[in-house]
Amino acid sequence: NTVYLKDYKLPEYLIDSTKLHFELQPKGTLVKSQLKVRRNPAAGAGLPPLLLDGVELELLSVSIDGQLVPASRYQEIPAGLSIEVEKPEFELEICNRISPENNTSLEGLYLSNGMYCTQCEAEGFRKITYYPDRPDVMSKFTTTIVAPRQYPVLLSNGNEIERGATEDGRHFVTWEDPFAKPAYLFALVAGDLQRVEDSYTTASGRQVTLQIYTEAKNIGKCAHAMRSLKKAMRWDEEVYGREYDLDIFMIVAVDHFNMGAMENKGLNIFNSACVLASPETATDATFQRIEAIVAHEYFHNWSGNRVTCRDWFQLSLKEGFTVFRDAEFSADMNSRAVKRIEDVSLLRTQQFAEDAGPMAHPVRPDSYMEISNFYTLTVYEKGAEVVRMIHTLLGAEGFRKGSDLYFDRHDGQAVTCEDFVKAMEDANGVDLTQFRRWYSQAGTPVLDVTDSYDEASGSYTLTVRQSCPPTPGQKEKLPFHIPLALGLLSAEGKDLPLDEAGNTQLVLPVTEAEQTFHFSGFAEKPLPSLLRGFSAPVKVRYDYSSEQLLFLMRNDSDAFNRWDAGQRLAFAALGQLQKDYRNGKTLQLQPELVEAYRSVLRNRDLDPALVAKMLALPSEQTLAEEAERIDAEAIIEARKFARHALAEALKEDLLESYRRLHKDKPYSPEAADIAERSLKNTCLDYLCATEDADALLLAQQQFDKAANMTDCAAALAALVNYGNETDVDKSLETFYERWKVDTQVVELWFSLQSGSARWGTLERVQTLMAHPAFELKNPNKVRAVIGAFANRNFAQFHRTDGSGFEFVAQQVIALDKLNPQIAARLVIPLTRWKKYSSALGEKMRQSLESVMQSGKLSADLYEVVSKSLQ
Ligand code: ARG
Ligand code: ZN
């Protein structure tokens, strides 16, 4: 059954207050809920039955205004409960029982390592009690938790208002959240937890208590998250004028979690992997991810909680906007260009692939079977690009006026993407009518750009054609409003003035299928720098020569485009290598590419983190996304050859850089230090690609002596990819013995092996699944072993006999019985079979078919598999 946006109806009943009472038991938790129900005057006349959502609940009793309701006046239906209504306002009391211990879906109330926790977004609250589980029903929650003393910490949203003992020796705490909220923002935690505490003074001088809760053994890993939280709180005040609104803000780390984290009001719940870090156990990438996710969830307090979504089709209203906010925060805290490169790389590989695949959908989808499947790169990442384009069109000040109006106008409401765009328009007196197509049309637009220069008049003309491939359910697309940021370079590599005012960069409004832009006053033909900063989520085609790309790599004043020019050059080279490989020719790397990389490596004026990015060849996944038809073998061989050839040619320079950057200094997650480590470890990895004994010795030494996990893991990865087999096995074992007490490091250890083309052979991955530290019920472990194999181990996953696909299909089938959300994610690499060369594509389709035929699938998995087989 499919839900459609066009069928949206106002809720028939409103819930003015929600009083919850929990008595926690692993197998039989009692839930009592008291609701002040009122007929929604806006929804029409009469008193239709009250429909409450409920899934896997054991109903115990229903009372209205203190009277037990006879069973004849309510009915348990597949979706929940239907109750006859006699008056427009009444108090409803429902008692039901649930079993947190048997809840492996990690949705609703469940147990993780002996601690109770909840995950309600999107539709998990209905697994706790009967309720109108939709975001446009907002209610004030009061929550009482009763539990045995072995759970000393009892948390929920808002402020603690009471605590005490029960007669039978248990204890209770009552929490009250003064802000009306939808049920998806409800949270409860109970466990034997330790906490670190800090405080924050808001711009207006209010004191806020900040707490991070974890198991005792992880208490030393909270400092970075706390620092990040305080930075995020300050940033939101400075950049958006948004202050925190409760007296306490809590974060809890949980080991079993389907996603990264969740923004429950006043009580954010995090996947342990996205909050806990110490220099000895976490890599730089993890430190940066934690900073971003802590900020993301905190920012939701305004973009998501104070102003929430009317329905789940509007998910990008809060997610696209909040991802944009956290990306800007990270850019301000670290290197802006590097952050942009990382985000665009993700978009280009994963989101573009989604846009081109069977599950393609607009930023605001029109329909879904299972909403969990729409927490996608399109809704999140492309949604953030859409908000960024509004920012680009309005400028920082205009955007701030728009966001002020949006928060002011809609505080306390559940609204739509349309309301967001309208606020931006109204605050700036602009018309974004055509721009709205970004919300309704799926697919990645393509810009074909050509240019001409007239010597006699000195004028330069740019012609832009836009098109967008068809996507499921959308054959024809109307032109998008695309902000195309442009610079023009002189032969000296300087930015030329583009208009009377002397601006050297303009944002061209591309709104038609074909459009020309005229510029004048040039003594020679300028070189265009197109889509600077990746000003729109599109593909740009322009016939650059290698010389022009090399020139842009050296001279473009836009750091992003400098990197992008290098990527284009590498793409062309790798494309040629793939062709040569298929035709059985001897492979040879273009000398220009080698020299370009050499001069990047020698350029001391560039941020080392940017140098590291510029030295990285496009990933196999990126090459696959760009290919018309995926020839996995050619991609693998071409890339492997190019890496090796670059490493051989640049050996001296790489070694020089490695030595210069390999410093013995205490770890800090500051951007400058991260930058140096990233370049150093990039050099190390290239050096090891030569498989020279000296290089491998460097890696071994770094592994043996490393004082932080970034250096340790980078060295181990290089050894795993290039080292001698017996030595590597020894290092892997040493590593495991040293770190087996630490869950997160064990996950890293798993993924290093599963994700390695060389080490993560299918047979080895199967052995890892039998390892005592592996747990199919833990999504982080599943992602570390099976996910890393399917998404990062390009060679093994694409084994020509199809055994890589079969393996993943089998795991998907097994997982679907435990955790449908995770099964539906894991199957995605199998869904793009149409893009593969026929033999491999057919094997992939067959494994997908075997999932379909395996029995009754969850709604989550069924939606993805059935749509992909069509
Ligand atoms: N709102 C959370 C976040 O992005 C994610 C919740 C994911 N829930 C889900 N069912 N997929 O911050
Ligand atoms: Zn979010």
UniProtKB/TrEMBL annotation:
GO biological process, one term: proteolysis
Keyword Protease among UniProt keywords: yes
Metal-binding in keyword set: yes
EC number, UniProt record: 3.4.11.2
Domain Peptidase M1 alanyl aminopeptidase Ig-like fold: 443-543
Keywords on record: Aminopeptidase, Hydrolase, Metal-binding, Metalloprotease, Protease, Zinc
Classification via Pfam families: DUF3458, DUF3458_C, Peptidase_M1, Peptidase_M1_N
Protein name from the UniProt record: Aminopeptidase N
Superkingdom in the source lineage: Bacteria
Cofactor(s) essential for the protein: Zn(2+)
Known function: Aminopeptidase N is involved in the degradation of intracellular peptides generated by protein breakdown during normal growth as well as in response to nutrient starvation.
InterPro entries attached to this UniProt entry: Aminopeptidase_N-like_N (IPR045357), Aminopeptidase_N-like_N_sf (IPR042097), PepN_Ig-like_sf (IPR038438), Peptidase_M1 (IPR001930), Peptidase_M1_dom (IPR014782), Peptidase_M1_pepN (IPR012779), Peptidase_M1_pepN_C (IPR024601), Peptidase_M1_pepN_C_sf (IPR037144)
Similarity annotation: Belongs to the peptidase M1 family.
Domain Peptidase M1 alanyl aminopeptidase C-terminal residues, every copy: 547-870
NCBIfam families tied to this protein: pepN_proteo
GO function terms (MF aspect): alanyl aminopeptidase activity; metallopeptidase activity; zinc ion binding
CDD domains, per database record: M1_APN (cd09600)
Residue ranges annotated for the Peptidase M1 membrane alanine aminopeptidase domain, each copy included: 225-438
Catalytic activity field: Release of an N-terminal amino acid, Xaa-|-Yaa- from a peptide, amide or arylamide. Xaa is preferably Ala, but may be most amino acids including Pro (slow action). When a terminal hydrophobic residue is followed by a prolyl residue, the two may be released as an intact Xaa-Pro dipeptide
Sequence ranges assigned to domain Aminopeptidase N-like N-terminal in this UniProt record: 89-185
